[in-house]
Amino acid sequence: MKQLQIKVKDGSCPVFVGGNLLAHAGPALRRLGFHTPPVVVTNTRILRWHGKALLSSLEHSFGQVNVIRIGDGERFKTQATLTRIYDGLFRARADRHSWILAFGGGIVGDIAGFAAATFMRGIPYAGVPTTLLSQVDSSVGGKVAINVRHGKNLIGAFHHPSAVLSDVKVLRTLPSRELAAGLYEVIKCGAIRSAALLNYIEKKRDAVMAGDPSALEHVVVEAIRIKADVVAADEREKRERMILNFGHTLGHALETVTRYERFRHGEAVAWGMIAAAELSSAMGMLPKEEALRLVALIRCIEKLPSLRGISAASLWRALQHDKKARDGRLRIVLLRRLGKAQIVDHVDPELLRRFVGRFVEHSS
Ligand SMILES: NC(=O)c1ccc[n+]([C@@H]2O[C@H](COP(=O)([O-])OP(=O)(O)OC[C@H]3O[C@@H](n4cnc5c(N)ncnc54)[C@H](O)[C@@H]3O)[C@@H](O)[C@H]2O)c1
Question: Model pTM?
Fold first, then answer.
């Protein structure tokens, strides 16, 4: 097991990564200063797979624990579900000294974290993330949110968890498509900050995808380190955090034009990274063989959903819309080397438009 201490605004958050953490969650959380039983927010699927291990450990340490179940899927990250969580908290007689334990993937983490940020003007919460994506991404950084009909994650807050327990053994029950979607975010961390992490994934791809605990522990710890490092640097230098958006410009546009139905977020980012690597090389920033290496690594994880039927024009419109939504500049994160990202502020729009056209045509 590894322990990381993530710096957050008013202190730090301990993150534990290892196998069998669920079975020891009760004593671990007690040692971290929690003394009353948590209110657990989760969903039925996660409870079915892993509920027994976690709940028996919690009940052993804290006595009876209340559980609030929410629906499974992005369409439940809503105000209606939030109301259901508040109702459950009131029924459990929660008050401002209570705390929430978010037990699930990024959806549970985001909405349970937002409930914690707002219930009684804010109560603490701890995370037990159960997808690779939530272990490496959403459980670090303190962003919590719900979706509204105007768009995803538009109502939210910054509320850091008080502790995170990432048990890599729970990832064994994750469908391989979900595991791959998380692994693309790990690859992103390697691409922007650590060639060593990319080397490791190249060597250990099969072990990671087979759920090998020590390989998973390594990639989760390294990805968290990189994300936490970039987020901490951002407190001093505002631009730095943008490098976490590597692959996200085209990724978001792909999600938009397919109405979030075709790609998992990580898969859209994977396509975005392929495009960004090729563009970096086409612009003479990144040696061609390094771009090819990154593309080959992304492609060997799982088969990505195809780009078939996506028109270059609609993708270009979505990119333009994204640009307007920000500050009117077409800003894009590219690579100088594997492990070294650079934010490029003024990409020639005509060059980019032609590149997108060729990319969609040749990558379908
Ligand atoms: N807050 C942030 O910084 C941040 C960052 C990235 C993504 N997100 C958010 O995260 C969400 C996506 O998260 P996700 O990819 O974890 O999806 P998810 O939470 O929907 O989980 C994916 C599926 O796997 C199931 N599942 C979870 N753990 C399992 C396990 N161990 N075994 C078997 N099945 C399991 C879930 O029930 C679900 O059906 C999005 O809403 C996104 O906006 C937030």
Answer: 0.96
